[in-house]
Write a structure and sequence with these properties.
GO molecular function: hydrolase activity
InterPro entries: Cof, HAD-like_sf, HAD_sf
Organism: Allocoprobacillus halotolerans
Keywords: Hydrolase
Number of helices: 9
Protein name: Cof-type HAD-IIB family hydrolase
Length: 280
């Protein structure tokens, strides 16, 4: 059996261009032809798998940071937040003027103010924050985004919540409640005057999704390779046998790497896959 390859998307498969290079596409297909299995392993919800990512044939996907696991087009795992806890989170965020998006299987439900926040920020504020850039840009690329007023908490499960706090202290005030139930991942920098990130259910991470995929195929963890660039890839890179980390990642993340890739827009993934012998 070949290797199990798990690829983050934003900052890993795609850089600032938001496009997958042709060489990277070819590398993934050649790796599969060489007997390896390739999976997306992303914080994106299923409805956010848009753009040229759809042009690449993968063996499956781990979405919403482990909330959904898809193999050969079928969901083998779905996980949703407890409705009472979700209700508390929504109330907490609304009361503290924190903008948020609820990620569900079929749609993303967005609070008012997200567009206005983006309009107030110059595009350069997003240049080094790919997750924030995605938060704004992907809504123009075919995602099923709906207003929060259309969300029915009794009928629709939520697996992850993304947030933007224009006031940093307002978010810090929420942390004591959130950290009891969630892994909190932030993408903004210390010097930013806002905080953006996501809350992910504990014990339901990208790493848990990887374990489910490997068990599904009755494989072994010694055959797993993870490619990532940010702290929401930490558990994934910690769990896999071989971590492949972006050279510009934080020191905490790079400590988990055995190999390192350069700018995705400059064929960084293709080059490292060649270096590792996954492709010819």
């Amino acid at each position: 059996m070949g290797k199990f390859l798990f690829f983050d998307i934003d900052g890993t498969l795609v850089g600032k261009s938001k496009m997958v290079t042709e060489k990277t596409k070819q590398a993934i297909q050649q790796a599969r032809q060489n007997g390896h299995r390739a999976f997306l392993c992303t914080g994106r919800a299923p409805t956010s798998l848009v753009g040229d990512i759809r042009e690449i044939a993968f063996d499956g996907a781990i979405c919403s940071a482990g909330g959904f696991v898809i193999v050969d087009g079928e969901y083998i795992f779905e996980n949703f937040m407890n409705q009472y806890i979700l209700s508390e989170v929504m109330t907490l965020f609304i009361n503290n003027h924190i903008l948020f998006t609820l990620e569900t299987k079929e749609a993303l439900y967005q609070t008012p103010g997200v567009n206005e926040f983006f309009d107030q920020k110059h595009q350069k504020d997003c240049e080094n924050n790919l997750e924030l850039m995605r938060f704004f840009q992907l809504r123009r690329m075919g995602e099923n985004r709906l207003p929060i007023k259309d969300f029915d908490i009794l009928k629709t499960g939520v697996t992850k919540v993304c947030f933007i706090a224009p006031n940093k202290q307002s978010f810090y005030d929420c942390v004591p409640f959130l950290e009891e139930f969630f892994n909190i991942v932030t993408f903004s920098k210390e010097e930013d005057d806002f905080i953006n990130g996501e809350i992910i259910l504990k014990y339901c991470t990208k790493a848990d999704g990887i374990l489910k995929v490997v068990n599904h195929f009755k494989g072994q963890m010694k055959d797993t390779i993870g490619f990532g660039d940010s702290m929401n890839d930490y558990q994934m890179l910690q769990e896999v046998e071989t971590g492949v980390v972006y050279e510009g990642a934080s020191d905490n993340l790079k400590a988990l790497g055995k190999y390192f890739f350069t700018d995705p827009d400059q064929d960084g993934i293709y080059k490292v896959m060649k270096e590792m012998g996954l492709i010819d």
